[in-house]
Every structure is written in structure tokens, then in C-alpha cells.
Write a structure and sequence with these properties.
alpha+beta, Alpha-D-Glucose-1,6-Bisphosphate, Chain A, domain 4, 4 helices, 7 strands, globular, START-like_dom_sf, Polyketide_cyclase/dehydratase, SRPBCC family protein
Length: about 150
Amino acid sequence: MTFSRTISAPPEKVWRSLTDVARYPALLTKVDATELLHHQTFGPGTSWRETRRPYGWPVTVDLRVTECRPPFRYVVECFAGGHSVTEYRLVPCDGGRGTNLQLTYTLTGGSLFHRISRIVARRRIVVCIRENNVQDLLDIDRACGIA
């Protein structure tokens, strides 16, 4: 699933918001808590624990950056009932004064139980993924509009 939003800020500013993991609870409406699992510059190997409430109860996952090309692209992976991969692409627009932020999410594999659950609850899962990613894009847009 791919989601995108044009943000009225240059890629460097959007990148700073996206990669400030410690600020996610204040920045992203759907994130309750984050815990950095090390203290290093954002890039491959950066990992953190993140808690969201996608279905009304807390769900915590450990995320890890596996690819990074500042300030244009990074990939985060985790286990969330399967192998979850989110790619963030920042494409300059409006002569570099804006950014088209694209998020692409995929979920594959997992145990037989998880795969069957995804089939049975597909509609609910798709709605949840859409709500979380669209809200994250709105929140990043809002954060980048603040001086």
C-alpha cells in the first residue's frame, strides 16, 4: 500500500521531522511512546521500540532502519505479525520548496496463524494501515509548517 502527501517544506526539513524518533510521541498522533535502543546518528542500524494503539489497545514493535539515503529515502523493518517493511521517499517539488512524501508499506510472511488472521481480518487491517499512515502524513505536514 502506498500513501503520499505534498508538504510545503523542503526535503531537508521533512527529513529532520521524520528522523527525530525521540519526538514521535509529540509529533505523531498515533504514537504513544518510543524508546531508542541505542544512541547513534539516524541511519542503517538505527533501532527503536514504538508503541501505537491501532485497535484501541497498545501494540509495541521494535523497528530498525535497514536502508538510508539522506534526505531522500529510508526503509524501516519490523515484525508485526509478519515481515513489515515501510519505505519513506522524499521527492523535491515546487523548485525544492516542497516535498512529495511517499510511504510504501508491505507485510509478508509470518506464522500460519498470522497469515490466516490477515485473510480473515483483511478489511479491518487495511483500514488500520490506511488510518495510521494517512494520519502520520498529516502530522508530518503539520510539524513542517510550524517554524
